[in-house]
From TrEMBL:
The keyword Flavoprotein does not apply. This is CoA transferase. GO terms for molecular function: CoA-transferase activity. The keyword Transferase applies. It comes from Sphingobium amiense. Keywords: Transferase. InterPro entries: CoA-transferase_III_domain, CoA-Trfase_fam_III, CoA-Trfase_III_dom3_sf, CoA-Trfase_III_dom_1_sf.
């Protein structure tokens, strides 16, 4: 769907590269500018023969060009590439590109309608703009890390991490959405042809996901508390243990579903009973209700629990591991889990594209490229540099 769009990525680690990968998955030509030492994310995760399996997916569908941005010739190459691009995505600390001579004003001297997407810890302005941050800090300041824990008093351990770089990824999602929205305003039939700036903060990206946390605090002074596996506004909805040591999530928090679940577990007398007659009553009585359901869930293996709950049409699932995701027939049927050819690994199991667009599906055109793999193709194709000039830049250490 984004074929014909060209995006320059000057990003590292997760947030901006994730944004650019989403755009690339939908067909954009993404040119990733890397230092000659490479994006540090190339060394993340499990390695095979010194190569990151994670990078195979994280860097897919992009063209890698190595440029020394500290050199004048390197910055000149970037400016020449900007002239050929619709948008640029970056996640340096605010002001860093400006200090390099690559600030938005300079870039727009070359490409006046350029869309510039900044992803940073705290945003491009405000008293905290210059502070260092990674995704985990965004999660903390956005309110998420406080909530990813068991209820107060249950454990005396630090609030747990979600398990993935969720702060970076959500910021990347917002940046991608912002880029596409800006391009729509610029390029639609009656577009204005104007440049736009997208300013995404890790902290703000997380805070925007916090549902009723701020309204409840503002009106009632209520500080939202962690609830472990439960939901503070609905019951029953939690993870319940099985006889074989797995966890099965059950969400039966509507009146018909609660009735179906109570009949299934042999407790029909609780349907409409005091303390269970409405969702607010069940929320207030959630601990006892979870105990009742746990007594039943412990009598069946996880697969049997799933079968029983499916037969009653009650939303449920085992807590999937990587192995469960990899073999799930629904994921496989929709191409969300797929075997992708990779010249270094043979094939790599990767996640497919989101969103699904049946009329114009995205494709994995290639997996994460080698460092500087596309130097000659990009500089020759877009800038018209002959091979001798590109070779000279290599000898100088510019690319």
């Amino acid at each position: 769907m984004l074929a014909g769009l060209r995006v320059l990525e000057i990003g590292h680690f997760v947030a901006a590269p994730f944004c650019a990968r989403l755009l690339a998955d939908l067909g954009a030509d993404v040119i990733k500018i890397e230092p000659r030492t490479g994006d540090p994310a190339r060394q993340w995760g499990a390695m095979v023969d010194g190569r990151s399996l994670w990078w195979s997916m994280h860097g897919r569908n992009k063209r890698s060009v190595t440029i020394d941005l500290k050199s004048e010739k390197g910055r000149d190459l970037v400016l020449q590439l900007v002239a050929q691009c619709d948008a640029i995505v970056e996640n340096f600390r605010p002001g860093q590109l400006q200090r390099m001579g690559l600030g938005p004003d300079r870039l727009r001297e070359i490409r006046p309608d350029l869309i510039v997407a900044h992803v940073s810890g705290y945003g491009q302005d405000g008293p905290g703009a210059g502070r260092a941050a990674f995704g985990v800090i965004g999660e903390a300041i956005g309110g998420l890390r406080y909530l990813t824990n068991h209820a107060p008093g249950v454990v005396d351990l630090p609030p747990v991490r979600v398990g993935v770089s969720i702060g970076d990824s959500i910021a990347g999602l917002y940046a991608a959405f912002g880029v596409v929205a800006a391009l729509w305003q610029r390029d639609r039939a009656h577009g204005d042809g104007k440049a736009r700036t997208i300013d995404v903060a890790l902290t703000e990206s997380i805070l925007s996901m916090m549902e009723g946390m701020l309204p409840e605090y503002g009106a009632l002074g209520k500080i939202k508390q962690p609830t472990g596996g439960a939901i503070s506004t609905a019951a029953p909805s939690n993870a319940y243990p099985s006889a074989d040591g797995e966890w099965v999530l059950i969400a039966a928090n509507s009146e018909p579903l609660f009735a179906s679940l109570m009949r299934l577990i042999g407790r029909p007398e609780l349907i409409g009973a005091p303390g269970y007659a409405s969702n607010p009553e069940r929320v207030a009585n959630a601990a006892q209700l979870d105990h009742v359901i746990t007594q039943w869930s412990r009598t069946h293996d996880a697969d049997r629990l799933v079968a029983l709950l499916d037969a009653a049409d009650i939303p449920n699932s085992k807590a999937f591991t990587a192995a469960d995701c990899a073999t799930d027939p629904q994921y496989r049927a929709r191409g969300m889990v797929r075997e992708v050819p990779d010249r270094h690994f043979g094939t790599v199991l990767q996640a497919g594209m989101v969103p699904h667009v049946p009329e114009s599906p995205g494709t994995i055109r290639w997996t994460g490229p080698d460092l500087g793999e596309h130097n000659h193709a990009v500089l020759g194709e877009l800038l018209g540099l002959p091979s001798s000039a590109i070779h000279a830049l290599e000898l100088e250490g510019i690319i």
